Amino acid sequence: MAHNVINGERLSGVDGRTTDLVDPTTGEVRGSAPISGPSDVDDALHAAATAFRSWRRSTPGERANALLGLADAVEDNAKLLADAECAETGKQWHVLLDEEIPACVDALRFFAGAARNLDGKAAGEYATGLTSTIRREPVGVCAQIAPWNYPLLMAVWKIAPAVAAGNTTVLKPAETTPSSAVLLAELAGEHLPPGVVNVLCGDRETGRLLVEHPTPALVSITGSTRAGMQVAASAAATLKRTHLELGGNAPVLVFDDVDVADTAEKIVGAAFYNAGQDCTAASRVLVHADVHDELVEALTKVASAQRTGRGSREAADFGPLNSQAQLDRVTGLISRLPSGAVVHCGGHRFGDRGFFFAPTVISGVGQDDEIVQEEVFAPVITVQAFHSEEQAVELANGVPYGLASSVWSENHRRVLRISSALDFGCVWVNTHGPLVSEMPHGGFKQSGHGKDLSAYSLDDYTRVKHVMSAV
Description:
The chain is an alpha/beta fold. The chain has helices at residues 38-55, 60-76, 78-89, 93-114, 151-164, 179-188, 204-212, 225-236, 260-272, 292-304, 324-335, 370-373, 389-397, 412-421, 457-460, and strands spanning 4-6, 9-11, 18-23, 28-34, 124-127, 130-138, 141-145, 168-172, 197-199, 218-222, 241-245, 251-254, 284-288, 342-345, 360-363, 380-386, 401-402, 404-408, 426-429, 444-445, 448-449, 462-470. The protein has a seven-stranded mixed sheet with strand order 14-15-16-13-12-18-19, sandwiched between helices.
């Protein structure tokens, strides 16, 4: 059973309400978590506000040492964290141990270094007899809402920069996947003062209470565009700062000078990682008409060979969707495909237990079709043809989202032209998906604003103050 972590203590919800935690590989209930109400939200934010009074005065070195200690603790407890996350996401155990948890450790260590490198303009005299200095300060208590696709990684992406900058946090993990974030908060309690990192389990109503509460100075959410709009509207009532990392619908622009077989292999890997439940998934393939049929055939061959796994220790390429609701949503999108669409493989639920969806490749879709305009968040690839660079860019930009994209071509000048024209926060070239702690992650348009990772994320978690004194 999951629980809240408030002021360093493990607590159940005040009113005793709980929600079931379901194993997505079987569809069976495996535990429960509190649904936190107004009293729980008050308690968590009070703890964070109290801790902020002293934590804001901590030195960069103290913050760095605390984050380094937490990074070591995450590394030392990797198997425990992987078990907790696998049970609620159905992910493959080796993916967490080999890829996602090392990325968590790296991000914590990066922000430990960044804590000691917050900069501002040098002091100077800009008016006679007056000296100006710039202070970069923490914003205060941060309310943070994490998604269900990467529960631990996204918790780290939120907590690490906030703490590095001297803030305190109350994190609400997704309703279906709270346990790894709860464990992270317990580990944080061994290295940070009580109240600096708090985790509050709950549902959408819990999130609404957290966002609308007068205490937080900033609200950060990683989630759907719909959820981001709701958070922005709620935060506007008290002019809270917002950090919104929202949906994506990444275009993959493939030109006729690529190695088609090799490109197809890489695209499928980037599209189906985490069962396609990734805001940067390579799900919307745009290909030059001259190699359209060849690429569709290659994508279908690679996709058809993908393996789904019933258990976290099985050798598999990806696991199930997160929930029955997500399975129903994807099934609905497929059921409403236009008459001209061709499903080359998949397009249906896989098996009769759990929330598995078969790897899917679809061609014959149009730019205005729902399956193209909406973020699918499943192991589904759509393919559209283009005839020119201009048309490729128009199709790529012709969705409400602007998070990530990729260009596949050996023509360097073409790549430079297109990467400049694409309206996305990240453009990969001849690859799709790699992220590093030093580089920013965040989008444009309805993919939100603000950056995760990198020193740029600290801009959201700090405020700039001008101090002017007479000399």
